[in-house]
């Protein structure tokens, strides 16, 4: 028969259920002194630098999230409007070649591929010696002006 020992808990060592009303959490601002904190509706609870756990003001939340006072993120305002800065020649243009290689097939959903460059090699001998053959890979031998598609990769 298995033996099971349990430590007795005295009332002074326990957090009593009677501390909690609806919508309360347990918080301790100093060691070994938990207290119930009631959370009002539409309230965020947190702790700012050098502060205690408490409900945060709108200004404190804005500071934590780095959102300017009076910021409006509706309609065409930022962050929605920031898309223009990501486009060609925008201030923080997103370049696909800096994102890394896809780990799965990229779906174009019937869109036309424009200004694409197919992997180029010098000649047919370079096609045969291509180091990483992948079924479906397209190479263009520039000396012969010919396309080559890998149909079997072993």
Question: Layout of SSEs?
Answer:
Layout: E1 24-28, E2 34-38, E3 45-46, E4 54-55, H1 58-65, H2 83-86, E5 119-121, H3 124-128, E6 138-141, E7 146-149
Parallel strand pairs: 5-6
Antiparallel strand pairs: 1-2, 3-4, 6-7
Overall structural class, as computed from helix and strand content, comes to alpha+beta
Our Rg estimate from Cα atoms comes to: 31 Å
Average pLDDT figure? 81
Question: What characteristic shape results from the CA principal axes?
Answer: elongated
Into which percent range does the helicity of residues fall? 10-25%
Low-confidence sequence ranges:
none
β-strand number: 7
Strand line-up across the major sheet: 5-6-7
Q: Treating each run of at least 4 consecutive H or I residues as one helix, how many helices?
A: 3
Task: Quote the distance from N terminus to C terminus.
Answer: 61 Å
Order of helices and strands: EEEEHHEHEE
Q: Main β-sheet, in a few words?
A: 3 strands, mixed
What fraction strand?
A: 15-25%
General description of the model:
The chain has about 150 residues and is of the alpha+beta class. Among the domains are: about 10-75, no CATH class; about 115-154, no CATH class. It has 3 helices and 7 strands. The protein is elongated, with a radius of gyration of 31 Å. The mean pLDDT is about 80.
Compact summary:
Among the domains are: 11-73, no CATH class; 115-154, no CATH class.
Task: Jot down its keywords.
alpha+beta, 3-stranded mixed sheet, 154 residues, single chain
